[in-house]
Amino acid sequence: METRVAVISIIVEDIKAAEKINALLHQYREYIIGRMGIPYGAKEISVISVAIDGPMGAISALSGKLGALSGVSTKTVYSKV
Questions:
Q1: Smallest Cα–Cα separation from 56: which of 1, 13, 18, 11?
Q2: Which residues does residue 4 pair with via DSSP β-bridges, in sequence order?
Q3: Does an H or E element contain 20, and which?
Q4: How far apart are CA 7 and CA 78, in angstroms?
Q5: What is the CATH architecture assignment of 4-78?
Q6: pTM, whole model, 2 decimals?
C-alpha cells in the first residue's frame, strides 16, 4: 500500500466540536505521526496540526470529515512522495 505524508491544519472556532474531533483522530490513529494543539484565548479558537502518514484515501477522508464538522475548518498539505 502506497502512503503519503501530509499535514492537516485545523482551526476550531466552536469548542463543542472538540469531542468529535478527538473521536475522528482516534479513529485514524494508526496513520497519525503526531499532533500539536494550541489554544488561542485572545481569539477564542484552537489551532491543531496533525502529521499523518497513510493512504491518500484515508487522509482525504479524515480531512473531509473534520472539515464537515460545524465550527471547524481544515486544510491539508501533501508531500510529493
A1: 1
A2: 54
A3: helix 18-27
A4: 7
A5: 2-Layer Sandwich (3.30)
A6: 0.93
DSSP 8-state secondary structure symbol assigned to residue 44? T
Question: Cα separations (Å) of 38 from 4, 10, 42?
Answer: 25, 10, 12
7 in Cβ contact with 50 (< 8 Å): yes
Using alpha carbons, select from 57, 58, 55, 50 the residue that is nearest to residue 77. 50
The CA distance from 71 to 62, in Å, is 16
CB distance 78 to 28 below 8 Å: no
The residues, any chain, with a CB within 8 Å of residue 30's CB and separated by 6 or more, are 54
Question: 52, 33 in Cβ contact below 8 A?
Answer: yes
Distance of CA 8 to the CA centre of its chain: 5
Q: Residues 42-77: pLDDT tens digits? A: 999 999 999 999 999 999 999 999 999 999 999 999
